[in-house]
Fold these 4 entries.
Entry 1:
Amino acid sequence: MFGLVCVLLEVERHQMSIAGRLTVCLLAALIWTGCSAGPGDLPCERDRRCVRYGISADIPILDPHIAESKEAGIVLRQIFDSLVYRDPDTHEIVPGLATDWQVSPDSLQYTFNLRQGLNFHDGSKFDAAAVVANIERIYDSEMPISYARELLGPLSQYEVLGDYSIRLTLASPFPAFMDSLAQPFLGMASPAALEAYNVLRHQFHLAGTGPFRLAEYLPGERVILRRFEEYRVNPVLYSERVGTEIERIEFLITRGEELDALIELDQMLDVIDNVSPSEAQNLAGNSRVQLLPTEIPGTAVQFLFNTRREHISRREVRLALLLATNRVAIIDQVYFNFSPVAWAPLSESTGYSHTGYINRYEFDLDAAQELLAAAGYTDSDGDGILEHGDAPLSLSIVLPPWGGMPAVASILQRQWRAIGIDLRIEPVPGATRLASLIRSGQHDLLPVESYGIDPQVLNPVFLDNGEYASSRAAQPQLNELLLSTMQLVDPELRRSQVYTIQALIMDEVLILPIREAVRLTAARADLANLRFDAYGFYPLLHNVSFADS
């Protein structure tokens, strides 16, 4: 056994704009040198050893240490193993590339014993040095800003204790650390591949230890994976295979097109990711199709009230809006009851949702009108819109095109108009423009979606230095509670404080919760063992097979 200590010095990270990231992706596409599936292969549609998986959005970049999109994670989960995993059913942390671990009493040191005898897809050895290579790449100042770096939190030092033992030291307690290590964006990549290929080319030469290896990547079109015959990790995520073993996975980018799922499943695809609720309703009960609703842990799908704005700054107005919203009708009309109504900031699937607010703010139009009248709102000119002094009660809402949000806003517009509130809808084409509008703070309601199991998913929305800070008046007590929760390691005390945080958010009526996120996947009926990991987005395809007829 030997000891090697390396301190990760905090350096000014290379800043890369969104436009810069897109440039990286475009350059990567121009220099692509992917491999073909190989001569003599049967077309996938005639080969029961191949699964065709339709992904609903493009993959900006396919690199675990740079990627942020859930669509990238769908593919990365098949190629890379992480040090630990979360059990899909219990959410408990379970072994992955690490067989076991110890945490110091002060929760600052995590010592991992690693699996032995494993090779990456390119034949290089997995060991503690490989873990070091991945950590150093994530911290490399030449790398773009990454979600992987954020996941590592206050990691400050690593210490190699032996060929298969490593200690990671944090600068401060970070109870979300093990959750971070379980995510596909901290999958372990081959050090040989990391050294051989630069940041642009690496995504075309990925080598992990996962159940499938990369065979071809054509950006904007497809990713083809082949089974890794030497796979030896086998975490408890996987069950026994039944029927014909799958040798190849073809991920096909559908770019969010509205597909006729039944025709596609008959002719082109075996799985369709993220089908719309209306399409799912059409498929329900069809014997040729299985519908797989999967809960997505994180914040509820909700709107943030911009408490810096004139009308929304009044709690009674926010409460009136909440009471004037018939969420049951929205779930029925837009989501066909595939998603439950959200009552609290965190979804039930996180395990942290505050159940004390179930049915607390039910639809009550009379109570909403009384609140507005008591706050001094009247319709003095008879145009059907309430005013406070000379200011009409006219509100603005920012709407992205995904997740049924336009339909939700149309219903809100009708429901609120019934009590004299004018809601103006501003559609936005994509995430870049949406982020810009959030930072501007110029709208009354903004959509909020933040995904993950650990309650720190609340931080980007509600911390005073978070991305929504310009769209929310400062809340010192809330900010202090969030910051302390980030370092609170006692699980029961932490849970209690998370409940207190949610109570403060709801009592101050800082959000309008709409629904708990559910992702709908459709698959051929004879495809067996299709399930998803604890985070809901990422399929576990190692044990998928076609049932033998």
Entry 2:
Amino acid sequence: MAELEAGLDRWRRAADEFRWEIPDPFNFGRDVVDQFPPEQPALLWRGGEGSERRLGFGEIAEQSNRVAHLLKNLGVGPGDAIIVMLPRIPEWHIVMVGALKAGTLVIPCSTILRPKDIAYRAEHSAAVAVVTTPDQAVLVDQVGAEAASLRHRLCVASPGAAPPDGWTDLATALASQAADSSASRETRAADPALVYYTSGTTGPPKAVLHAHGYTFAQRYTSEFWHGVRAGDRVWTTSDTGWAKAAYGVIFGPWSLGAEVVLLDARFDPRTELSLLEQLAPQVFCAPPTEFRMLVKENLSGLSVPQLRECVSAGEPLNPEVIRAWRDATGLTIRDGYGQTESILLVANYPGIPVRPGSMGLPMPGHRIEVIDAAGIPLPPGEVGDIAVHGSPPGLFREYWKDPAATEKTRRGEWYVTGDRATRDEAGYFWFVGRDDDVIISAGYRIGPFEVESALVEHSDVVEAAAVAAPDPDRGAIVKAFVVLRDGASPSDELAGELQEHVKRSTAPYKYPRAIEFVADLPKTVSGKIRRVELRARG
């Protein structure tokens, strides 16, 4: 009890003393990356076959300046959108920083998107440039007229390999550019900087617009939650296409002078444990799904003496996983809660006792409450909506080009996250669930609409509904209830065919891992699918 009170007292003091100090003007590349000593370690990259690259801040600064010059010479500048669709390779960091220096609107995208996903993002954003790899270049070319705005197509090809027809090799283009900072633009903290596309309950993905101030605010995620110190090595296992990469592999750690680890390989629990020993990070951040798989391995011989902080986010982490990891390593995994729309909002912080299963306490600089339908904070123990008061600098500006969706997130002076929770007497938040039908699986956010749309494209499907079904490793999986046309017969073969169809039609992680064929779908009197009833079926 004394330890808890001491920890809560430290948190209260930190919250009381915190003041937002967002510099203006601000540009992450100019004001963060360029300010460190050139030789200071910035990035440790490891390839799937064991190949390795180490980059200092000086090389990141120089190469990102070349990117800024290239974009300027191509006529790409402030107000123009650029799609960055690269895997976990150093060029992702270089292009991201360079594009921000150029003042463009940067759109990070996952490399597992399908042509339909790419077409929507290109058309919605009117992006004028794209940077990707040969594999994804083929998919971009398949989009055709829907990506007509992409006038500049830059490709990160293997050394010595020719880029696809119609594409420019990025390395060749950068070699002819100046390495000085004269192409950097002065950007205001409130200027548009980033757009992340995130799945919603209905319709296509929403475009989450962040300002340059957001890239500064992410330092507080790393400072308060990660527990990053200058000179640390930080390994966050996120894919570069997601907002998690913003706080884990670029903006947060680099703001504090840490070196980040980037592993370009598929997840394998034994390999990951081995790399924890080899690469010796001080801070390790992985999604709950990975921790669940790691604790199933034999951890008795694991030796990680340099590891100081372990954190996880994306979905609630099982208390038994926290206990198993602590028993093996002596370290407690500290849960955190944030959104694509924000920096970290609620977390378990270093030096403060963790209540296993709890989301933790609000991030300094934020007033966060559990509120009712009228926007009134609820007393401890009552279920309500997690809401953020006002518009702190780490919160998104808007759903780009969708004022109606933006307005729906506000309840008076509150931003309503869409998640529900309770709060206990000590102030800890406890996650209850989404207040909509978005599916969170292995940390991925999946909109049922996208899965259902892909399913009904199949000639045998009349109707479909997608919901979350519990899963011990992923937290939840996508389960689809499918109504077939007359003459089509349910079978395991057809279920497999539908799964493969969804993988081809949209990003593969969205496919339904379980399919149940039904005669009809439960609906409201107005014809809306009652997904809540389907979820109850399990």
Entry 3:
Amino acid sequence: MTPAVEQLVRDTMDLTGADAPDLLRADAPVLDEAVIADAALSDVALAPGDASLGGVLDAAAGVGPAPGDDFYLVGIIGGKDVGKSALVNAIVGRDITAITSHGPGTEIAIAYVHATREAALRALLDREVPGKFRVVVHDSPDLARQVLLDLPDIDSTFQSHLAVTRQMLRHMLFPVWAQSIEKYADGVPQQMLAQVAAGNDARNFLFCLTKADQLDANGGMEAGEELRQDYAQRIVRTTGLKTPPPVFLVSSRRPSQYDLPKLAAQLGVQKTTAIVRQSKALAARRQDTSLLDWITRQDLAGRAERLGRLRQEAEEAVAQRVAVPLVDRVLPRIAEDPNNRLALADEILADRVGRWPLVTLVHTLMAPLMLMLRAMASKNPAALLSGDALVDQHLRSQAFPLGPAVQSAFAQLRQAHPLVGEMYKTRRLWEEPEADLVAVDLGRRLSAAVDRQRDVARDRLSPAGGWLAPGRWLLTIGALLWFPIVQPVLEAVLSRGVEQTRWDQMLGLIVAVLGVNYLTKSVGFLAIWFVVLWLGLRWNTQRRVARLLGRWRAADDLDPDLNLGTQALAWAEELTAPIAAAHERMATLAGRAEGLREQLGKAA
């Protein structure tokens, strides 16, 4: 199997909770990955319509085995009393296994192997079926890479016998399925064939009906043809082959008759490297097909569609019960809180007037008066509240209990869709403690956004130093010098004319201007001037603060960290995030499965 398909199966099991497919069970009688690891397709392809690999690629028959190539296994698979051992002896032309018609039957794996592959085969058998095998060595060069196995009965009542056969099937690329004409319709062999065919392409199999000599007294070859065709059709239904495979009618008692010579001839010459490699590729592709069939049975597309509907329903429920009331009723009160806006403006104003000479004195004198006026107009004229206190004040004061709203929405979803309980195992939002926790989380997010808004407002509206400093000095210190002193002196000089003004007259004018009586008259005007400056700064600060807060209330604000509505909607989305994630993962799995199936179809 390809890693992409296996990973898809693992992801499907993880997401759906489905049991592993039989193909991936540790004791499944399917080809091990190590056997088909080099399953790259050879340059020679199967001819369309070929039902088996027997006789395929005759053009490649001249391609001999390269020195050091690994061996492959051919095994005789069948039930009790079908004549497997007699068939093996007939094929190799010598008695390598005992023939039994009663008792436990064949109990171990008996291997017929070339001497050059004996050590490697023994290592495999010692690892897979230790102590349950016997090796018979030959020196036929035509079978240097082929190992023929006689295995215990697949319908044996002894589990240890069956375990040997199932374990060796994991390494057997070319099984030979032997069934007697009396037992060919038995269910157990068909079940085993289906399991093996799920992990190996049935075109790698050979099929034979043994004890054909019994047909002589029961209809002869005409009856044999009927049995052959019926058995072939059963194989098609079991394995999924598109066309019925060849079925050999054989008789160990009469080896020269029926199809035993053809079978022996086919198994008497080892397969070329190209055929073995292509057989492995077919097996790998079959495993992918079987796994994709399992994935199809999981109905990923249907699950994704149902999760999509659940996601939509969950988002609508959360929006209707939680998000909309929150955005429409709670957030505007936080964003438009007059005390918050005025207190923030006062804090920024205090910072701004500190850069205006003498205006800071006016601010110090006027601040208590403004606080008293605000106290008369408001129930809560306190200084600027912290972000946590502001948000908590409005969340608690509303007739909208956030925690119970979350709890109610998810209780309804869980009741209508039990799957919600699985998705929220560690976050049971239909229970009061968890619902209250997410409500607290929203409070933290909103308070953090309020704090960020204040920090940004302070940075933007209270710039440090800069090129405006000369203007501030001109409007304050300059006004202080100009109105009471410079302006009266210049006015008198200019009215008399500079040439007619003597120095003694100039000094007298200056002394008069600096006198107590004149300065007292100027104090009122200067007080009005600096109060006007302070009021102008206050109005400008409040206007700019209101403009910033208003922009952050807009739905199209580009900075989500400063937008209370954006923060609330992001929080609401996270409530349904497990459902959304499951839907997206399921849809992705369905897309991956469809893509892999298309790739497999193109490669076939």
Entry 4:
Amino acid sequence: MSLQTLTYVVVGLSFALYIGIAIWSRAHSTGDFYIAGKGVSPIANGMATAADWMSAASFISMAGLIAFLGYDGSVYLMGWTGGYVLLALLLAPYLRKFGKFTVPEFIAERYYSKTARIVAVICLIFISFTYVAGQMRGVGIVFSRFLEVDVTVGLVIGMAIVFTYAVLGGMKGITYTQVAQYCVLIFAYTVPAIFIALQITNNPIPQLAFGSEIAGSDTALLDKLDDIVTSLGFNQYTSGTKSRVDVFCITMALMVGTAGLPHVIVRFFTVPKVRDARVSAGYALLFIAILYTTAPAVGSMARYNLINTVQPGEIGAVDGNLAYVDRPEWIETWQNTGLVSFEDKNGDGRIQYYDDSNDSFAAKAAAYGWQGNELSVDRDIMVLANPEIAGLPNWVIALVAAGGIAAALSTAAGLLLVISAAVSHDLIKGIFVPTISESHELLAGRIAAAFAILIAGYLGFDPPGWVAQVVAFAFGLAAASLFPVILLGIFFKRVNKQGAIAGMLTGLLFTYGYIEFFKGLFLKWAGAPWGENVASNWLFGISPEGIGVIGACLNFAVALVVSHLTAPPPDRVQQMVEHIRVPRHFDENPI
């Protein structure tokens, strides 16, 4: 059976499973649609949370970043896992005890303000649509390569699947679909890793293979990788180039952003009891750890295989190291997607692959007829292409395709439902039409989800960067806008509505403005190329991926200062904070 046929079968079966679950778990009330009727068990919620959070950035892009960045890519591992500790300890149980449907609803009640609710909705929509752009890019990459259809067609198919189980099943349908998607994506991620670990090191456990010796030699994988990449002019794989300040800020932005992501927070509203919220966060960490401890091995083995496939030996070497050979089959296949490009600059029909941004190295290579790096590889393809590069069986490649789609669709569905709830529950019912009936609110939620899916599909046609890069921006926005006011709302009774509103707007506008200025995301979409500025102009040396930490600090500072300059919250609000924070007599009843 051909790879394309096998991929259609595997992906088609997974789609049939998702749709079947959505039909089985169809939402019949707003409680089902928004929070799955608060009836999800902790272990199922842990799996659903893991799938919701392990998006295309985790499955597709993170190992690709590690493959090319090496040590610098560790910030994504530390930040995206560490955030769950903050979430489990500081937010999840308290928000579950509050017992409402959405994050903006908590902010509205805690800060006794419809304006605060509207600002929270604006922050939520900014975060969610930035995040969902990365997911739809992941869907497009998988479809364009493995199903060999146009990216537009692939996005439409992905949108149709999400529409079916998100609009029909709501949170109830999404939750149980995400349980299935977690099983698909984790199997699809670990099986190829085991195969490749055996190939390279004879050790079937990727986490151990990462530190093992290459089969048939006494050289460790990482040592060999260091030798290879430095011989081609690239930075040493096991040492970083980022400043400590930037590493710290990116890690903190990802951690705090994880704890402030609305589609993750809402998961803890779906369990029966407060204790279950904390337990399900623990399960989620366990399920996430399976993929995240495998990712460094996947990234390093992908980089090793990439270079050895392109340059397996020392033919025509410069200083005994550089080499170039005829194009392997996988490069020709991926060139059709536009995510790998080969430009034969010297007309010899072979690949010259090295770091031509290294001026001293490029000058040395030029003496031997080199005219610049001829190969460009999109970082987002490394996990998907790795089985092909390693020559694994077609069924493994098809499985990876299904896993990549599952990772992207699971998170996209969660984000779209959060956007839907923000429109139907927080704006329509909470602000504009408080008397709307439950059936009409449910209909409004489904219509809002449908429109959100259309916008998400549009963003997927021309996303603003690599999947993990775009997602990092979303985490920065979440860290700077929602996390501080939620944390202050739980632990600081003195913070009032004026402080919360001012803090959210300050954090959001500063962080978005910084990202826009240095990355020019929307300017790039409009065709203006000047948005890329040099790192020397960054504030305190902090990259746009890490600036959410400064935005969060500004949010905290503004909220506290403004609150102390204005009237304190009413007594009933302060009592509500006490009730949320202190589990008196194990009281699990919501406010």
